[in-house]
Amino acid sequence: MEIVFHGVRGSVPVGSPLMDRYGGSTTCLSMQLDATSHLVLDCGTGLRGFEDHIGTEARHFTVLLSHYHWDHLMGLPFFSPLYEPEATFDFYGSPWEAHTVEEGVAGAFEPPWFPVPLSATAAAKNYLAVPDVPWQVGPLTISAARLHHPQGVTAYRIDTPTGSVVFATDVERGEKESDERLATLAAGADVLIHDAQYSPDDYDDHRGWGHSTWQDAVAAAKDADISHLVLSSHDPQRTDEDVDRLLDEARQHFPNTDAAQVGMAIDV
Fold first, then answer.
1. In this predicted model, what pLDDT tens digit does every residue of 79-109 receive, in sequence order?
2. Pairing relation of β-strands 28-32 and 2-7?
3. Pair 32, 6: CB distance under 8 Å
4. Is the Cα dihedral 108, 109, 111, 113 positive or negative?
5. In the chain, where are the structural domains located?
6. CA–CA gap between residue 32 and residue 196 (Å, rounded)
7. Helix (H), strand (E), coil (C) string for 179-226
8. Which of 4, 120, 251, 257 has the most crowded Cβ, counting Cβ within 10 A?
9. How far apart are CA 69 and CA 84, in angstroms?
């Protein structure tokens, strides 16, 4: 099976010739389960690019949400299948304080910021709290852990019949319990997709903002005995050449490292 990147930026989408190679859409990844079913990780503006790659027969979407910040939801109101009565969405997320998963998703549709309430969209929608134990989605086994980020973030491990991948975006390393939870979740996985929004030089100005550096990502990969590290959630000010430089530095310490780019597909 493949996991495909449709959006790889953090915070806000960008459009510039200097950023075309890695892409400017915010976080969204997918895995096709069968002719009609897809797993989607986050619903940033990359969700629009995902729509361009699915056929009209796509009807069932299992959505794993890391959290409810705008850059991870802003593609959903513009995703055409949400307005089709034949489609079904299963949204998995972690409730935050008194807010349910449905309330977290619906926030992107609240007036006056969007004209159509989520409740008025035609697709069937189910809202599920992330279980405390692994669960099945088609041929996949999924498990999760809560990590360190403002209002919290959920990382997911996806075990396929042939491999495993961990999606850990928007996590700030350095909180002991969070780091340990990620190491446990990711232990022995084939692929770790890890936040690397900041460079070591600019991290101090963004301490507490909920993001990591390439050094943090490498440390997480080594802690969990990962085979392949993918740096993601690129800073919106980071040009392609900037990302290349960070990638080169990371590879000096963890050679099997890549930087996520729109259109990248990895076998798992």
1. 999 999 999 999 999 998 889 999 999 999 9
2. antiparallel
3. no
4. positive
5. 2-267
6. 26
7. HHHHHHHHCCCCEEEEECCECCCCCHHHCCCCCCEHHHHHHHHHHCCC
8. 257
9. 25
